[in-house]
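FYI - complex with flavin-adenine dinucleotide, inputs then prediction.
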Amino acid sequence: MSKKLKVGIIGGGIGGVATAVALAQRGIDAHLFERAAEFGEVGAGIQMSPNAVKVIRELGGWDDLAKASFLPECLLGKNWDTGDVNFVIPLKDDCPRLYGAEFFHVHRADLHQLLADRVDMSKVTFSTTCVDVTQDKDKAIAHFADGTTFEADLIIGADGVRSNVRHALFGADDPKFTGNMCYRAVVPFDEQPDFVAPATTFWMGPNGHVVTYYVKGGKGVNIVAVRETEEWVEESWHTRSTVESMMKDFEGWHPNLMKLFERVTEVYSWGLFDRDPMTTWSKGRVTLLGDASHPMLPFLSQGAAMAIEDAYVLAKALDALPDDIEEALRQYEQERLPRTARVQLEARERGRTYHLASKEDQAKRDAEYREQQQKDPHSGGIKANWVYAYNATDFQPVV
Ligand SMILES: Cc1cc2nc3c(=O)[nH]c(=O)nc-3n(C[C@H](O)[C@H](O)[C@H](O)COP(=O)(O)OP(=O)(O)OC[C@H]3O[C@@H](n4cnc5c(N)ncnc54)[C@H](O)[C@@H]3O)c2cc1C
């Protein structure tokens, strides 16, 4: 008879909670450890593209996701000052047909909650910080700041971009500041305003871009406004900034964007960090997942989606190979490493394309966008069709 696995998950962000759900669904005994006193996601939106929605559906969360979400009509690419439309990628009707699931906009707290609702809370420990992970042939041990330990067959580090588990496995290697920061805000609206399209709108301008989309079923507009900067900016969802600073950094951009910015009351700033893709995430009985393994720029809106895909694939590999954890981790990496590395690198490249500084370069890029639009809108624009088409639930471990 196969062994019943016992797993420790470090970190209860979207990746960790998705992992807890995916493991529990397969009858694997998983305990989650979160350093915060309770679960909580920040007050911001998140795009859930079809590749992530396919997994959430398998995890049983589709109904709750659909209820909490906004369904955008399309993904719009606009010029920063004229507002000219360079590409329109239809989403609402096309995503289920082309990719097998919807493209949703949701509030992060709602997404986290619908996953957390599927977690057995008796298997969650809050206010506990993992400081180290050790292992021997038979077990992995998570060590916590209060001196306690947890022994398991496998420890999964889902502890984000500054992962202690990653540090324990691979040594010190700080994430790199990418020279980009972003302002983020959510503006509440009773009615959808005529100056914000019911779309994911990418405004592309010199040395920056702005993404706007509805959340809360259309009762709020999420803003992510990215600026290149030489100054190092702290990476934190909780660092306050000012509307004045945001308005100043986007001076001269389209009046509709300015109208939206004027309505912002609370704004936060965030330094964007990433890492180069790794060649492995695992050692023995310890592995990584989500931002701990492949932090990326948010320019393809995929960090959480990748963590959700990782969670599903890892759970399926462990379920199929409970007696051979190293082989399960090898197959997990074989499936996930090439994909996440490509998304990491292409997200970086999108930054360069979106942020072209000279009018000539922008005109050339926009002409290419329009030409591609005529041929096939789905393979143009932000060029993410290959990201959406992937289906993590198709993964078949080799036993
Ligand atoms: C501006 C912006 C916009 C984005 N938009 C999108 C989008 O539209 N779509 C998308 O898919 N992705 C998006 N992302 C990316 C996404 O937010 C992240 O990739 C995702 O949240 C990563 O989840 P995670 O669970 O791996 O890590 P985290 O969310 O960082 O979670 C890590 C968890 O571990 C806990 N923790 C950390 N260290 C320890 C420790 N030592 N012990 C115990 N607990 C610990 C933390 O408290 C936290 O709860 C965006 C990112 C940014 C910055």
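Residues 325-354 form the longest helix (30 residues). The chain has one domain: 6-174+275-393.
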